[in-house]
Secreted protein (Rhodonellum ikkaensis), 188 residues
Amino acid sequence: MKNYIFLFFAILTLPAFAQEKIGSQMFMETLKQHCGKAYEGTVVTPLADNDPFAGKKLVMHVRNCDDNVIRIPFFVGEDKSRTWVLTLEDGLILLKHDHRHEDGTDDKVTMYGGRTANTGMAGIQFFPADQETADLIPYAANNVWWITVDETSFTYNLRRIGSDRFFSVKFDLTKEIETPDAPWGWND
């Protein structure tokens, strides 16, 4: 009789477990909570004096959130050429770097990135470089990007495996700033 009672309760609770969201879905939902908001960030890795990020105001703007696509422009001072594009497909997230010139045309190095190898966790997703990236930028074939997000911060990170290349920028999600103008190539 005990086995039947256990089985009965197991069957009743099964739909609750089956409906639980996977890490990638929770990650995207957390980002969507910031849609329309902008935040200032700081590079947390050491920079050389001549680094293009040194001394510049860094701003991320969770500008566009569709059902499965989130676009986050990343401004470095007056340079509005970068947008992170996160796309949820079949439980995995694709990260692409959309780079534009000031006139809106594509940079010759654009749409590189990678897809998560698994559904990941709600607060962190890893993106190893995909074949498109290896073909476009051979030296970046060993890149791994990862993004973390929680109640207080968003970090974007890059590590080039087998080298000293490491970059990390952290944004304070507790201090919303004024929404910036559109990035290069956007009409709205």
In short: Residues 2-18 form the longest helix (17 residues).
